[in-house]
């Protein structure tokens, strides 16, 4: 999606049937690419070298020997298996969804529906193709509702911060919630489905030349597989986050799209993924605390406090900012370079967080008491955040630069609106362009006329800024401006009436 009128993307105006058709087509293309990647993972899994005895064609159907299975069904390993394995019912649901989605696309090609019928058919196809993957996240949330409830306040706080951290032309809360849902259900579900297949594939190709089963299951072999799996998951998750930002931008294409928009949407996608991942790891480390030494309480502390804005949230913000910046470029080559650089940076950051943090921890572990209060409250969070620091700083700098650019454009838009009509009067643009002046205007109105007048004034400012935001959108539909100007005039009347009644 591109908001620049001179680019080689949409030619239809937003809000028109042509633009809606193009947006649906692009959303469907994203879904096809993700399903295509899953099919590639599945084919690689089927073709992998078989290492263990009696391996099935698809690795997720592997059954442990009875003696080993009985042993693993007791104690912490049962929780480990339940949390990380891909249920067979989900696999078959995904296969059925792919078949149904393919049939719906064939039906669309034959019938060539238009208008509302085309939209309904597209949504049904997307639901069939991607819906089954959400079962993986839903199963974790449903299995551990208390842990999910404990993580909910942190997620709500970050969403509030993202919503209010924007200046002018804010992405609507519905867009943030859609991005959060994509991260929670699609990024987590697809990433786990890909990785569930990739684990056996990577393992098979990594140890295919082992001389014995003992060599194939040695710690050295397993660590090599885990390192490659971390890289695989980082690449896959970055691609899925990017796809989520693109899909949400398509859904809310009438909004202003720039670095700030991409940043907050990317952060919301990362937040959704981090929410479900936190539930999983809190339960996982709680179950394996006797082995790993880390507890579920420590995982809750580091993920829901000091690390709340780090990890997937920070990397999602950086990737989204890169995509928002790329969308504003006119040339395809520039867009590709910026988006590719953001993708590579995020993949590198995610891998470094997993590897360098563990390496730092091993270096420090020999010189202090692991699990002590100082280690829990200071050292471990610091070591976890240290590899992320450059990426977090870069994301913050991009946010500040994007806010300044948006403020400058908003001032010009408000001046143009003041010159064009009565919705924004001369002199009002100065107050509207400065958040501090708007705040003190609300405070003064509250003190002098009461809360009703202040609330009406806040709604008036919001509508006026939304009207200015239409001018920021280079492909905005002019028909949307007139009803909004009427709304502004009506709110001005309400402000005067509230002041008189007080």
Q: How would you portray this structure in words?
A:
It is a single chain. The protein is mostly helical and 502 residues long. It folds into 2 domains: 17-404, no CATH class; 421-501, no CATH class. Helix content is 77%, strand content 0%. It is globular and about 85 Å long. 36% of the residues are buried. The model is unreliable at 1-17 and 67-80 (pLDDT under 50).
Spell out the key features of this protein.
single chain, 502 residues, mainly alpha, 2 domains, 21 helices, disordered N terminus
How are the SSEs ordered, and which strands pair?
Elements: H1 17-46, H2 66-72, H3 76-84, H4 88-111, H5 115-130, H6 134-143, H7 145-164, H8 173-206, H9 213-216, H10 219-251, H11 259-287, H12 289-292, H13 296-306, H14 312-327, H15 332-365, H16 373-385, H17 389-420, H18 428-432, H19 435-449, H20 451-472, H21 481-501
Helix pairs in contact: 1-5, 1-8, 1-10, 3-11, 4-5, 6-8, 7-11, 8-10, 8-11, 10-11, 10-14, 10-15, 11-13, 11-14, 14-15, 14-17, 15-16, 17-20, 19-20, 20-21
